[in-house]
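To: structure desk
From: M.T.
Subject: fold request, one chain
Message: Could you run this one when you get a chance? Sequence is below, nothing fancy, just the single chain.
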Amino acid sequence: MMRRAGGLLLGLAMVAGCSPGQAPIMGQAALESVALRSSDGRTLSISGLRGKPTLLFFGFTHCPEVCPLSLVKAVQLKRRLGPLGADLQVVFVTVDPARDTPAHLRDYLSAFDPGFIGLAADEAGTRAVAESLGVSYQRVGEGEAATFEHTASWFLLGADGKLQEVLGYALTDAQMEARLRTRLAVAPR
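Reply: Done. Structure tokens follow.
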């Protein structure tokens, strides 16, 4: 019991030593190095999205509720943000790379906004990128009937590629818009 408590305290001390908004070094390495295939034909890492602020979500196209509702929310937020939202990239990283090919992601996302970007990696790459941001997911079931339990938060990355804020699923549209306005208004353009 004492050994477990000591390990927990050491782990908490290590996490507490991280600067606010920064992924741990191992996580940052995954954001830099894991190659993902995009719905627009590119191969890039999460850090390859630099240059514009990015609203990042992890989900899957067979998701019955949370993912499509979250993407509708992103469409509405970009519209309400007006000029502040013009440069905001919306990126959907699949946790189901076996079914969600880049072409399938392109078709799925175009129903929400043709400018949304889908990203897919292999299972190991997906897991590394997800865990680097604290995203958890687990496959439930098998075959075409399979679904996933997954973190349903949005991750706002600045134009520099660094994590700016985590926007939880429970936030109201008004709360999410206010937080994005604040972050985007102070971001270098």
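Reply (cont.): The beta strands are 36-38, 43-44, 54-59, 89-94, 117-120, 137-140, 147-150, 154-157, 163-167. Let me know if you need anything else for the meeting.
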